[in-house]
Design goal:
The chain is of the alpha+beta class. The chain folds into 2 domains: about 180 residues, 3-Layer(aba) Sandwich (Glutaredoxin); about 100 residues, no CATH class. The chain is built from 12 helices and 8 strands. The strands form 2 sheets. Strands 2-1-3-4 form a 4-stranded mixed beta sheet, with helices on both faces. Strands 5-7-8-6 form a 4-stranded antiparallel beta sheet. The longest helix is centred in the first third of the chain and has 15 residues.
Length: about 290
């Protein structure tokens, strides 16, 4: 076995993989068909997929008996079918254990794994087993000794979101594969703008960081601006630390995340009161009416 699959010829493995119609689904053909029929791509999804003008290669590592493969692989298939320039090939995990060693999840051979390559067959990223938030929930449930409950919880999330989590994450990886010279720098500049803490004029000294508390999570840019102005006016020194992910699909930019308001411990109670007065004044009015 090669060291973590480092010396594998991924281009060759992809070329020898099966198409969706060729891939043996065995006795699970009906499960795949039902999930394939249930996939809904929005107009924005199709505009993005059909707008791809360069070759994009995707390698799916699967097994037909796996429940996660039953659910996730048809989503990828439907997306790839939207544009003939997206070339999907499927291989069975147990026939390519060297390859699987390259894409372990916490030491486990979790499937499916979707690997994305650009037109020069440079690997740009991979997607493993379930949407990111579902993997995080499952990891916490496993650590708490409640794995079965965690599996039921993530099933609820995937049902609730109608596969949108997988679709959006796959679009991000496809967009990454389409990056042209200089485009990654635009993403870097945007990330720097979002990740640089916004602070009051008198910034909190590094030696005081041990006394910094998170007091509020802003849900959107409007809240960020309101909170910033309210704390400045009250003279409370603060950090607004952004932890956002942006979906870049060439057509749509959507902020998905929060900014965390951080203040010194001694200012926490006052800061929270100011934020609540600024953002939720109607709650106070309702309380006064009820008295």
């Amino acid at each position: 076995m090669t060291q973590a699959g480092q010396d594998l010829d991924l281009r060759s493995i992809h070329a020898k993989g099966a198409t969706w119609s060729q891939w043996g689904k065995g006795e699970h053909e009906e499960a795949f068909r039902m999930n394939y029929d249930d996939v809904i791509l929005t107009r924005s999804d199709l505009e993005f997929l059909r707008g791809i003008e360069r070759k994009l290669h995707v390698l799916a590592i699967c097994e037909p008996w796996c429940g996660d493969v039953h659910r996730q692989l048809p989503i990828l298939v439907r997306m790839c079918e939207a544009n003939p320039l997206i070339e999907l090939r499927i291989v069975n995990r147990d026939e390519h254990l060297d390859l699987m060693e390259r894409y372990l999840t916490n030491g486990a051979r979790a499937i499916p794994v979707f690997v994305f390559f650009n037109d020069d067959f440079a690997e740009v990223g991979n997607w493993k087993a379930r949407p990111q938030v579902c993997r995080q929930i499952l990891g916490r449930a496993k650590a708490a000794g409640e794995l079965d409950e965690g599996k039921r919880a993530i099933q609820q999330i995937m049902d609730l979101t109608s596969n949108r989590l997988t679709i959006e994450e796959v679009k991000i990886l496809m967009d990454r594969a389409l990056a042209e010279p200089g485009r990654w720098q635009l993403f870097y500049e945007d990330a720097m703008d979002r990740l640089t803490p916004m602070s009051s004029e008198e910034a909190i000294n590094r030696k005081d960081l041990e006394r910094v508390l998170d007091v509020y999570h802003c849900q959107d840019q409007v809240e960020v601006l309101l909170v910033q102005d309210a704390l400045k006016e009250a003279g409370v020194h603060f950090f607004l630390q952004f932890f956002q992910d942006r979906v870049w699909d060439g057509l749509l930019e959507q902020d998905k995340g929060v900014a965390v308001v951080q203040v010194l411990e001694e200012d926490a109670e006052r800061a929270l009161e100011i934020i609540e007065e600024e953002l939720f004044p109607e709650d106070e009015e309702e309380e006064e009416e009820g008295e």
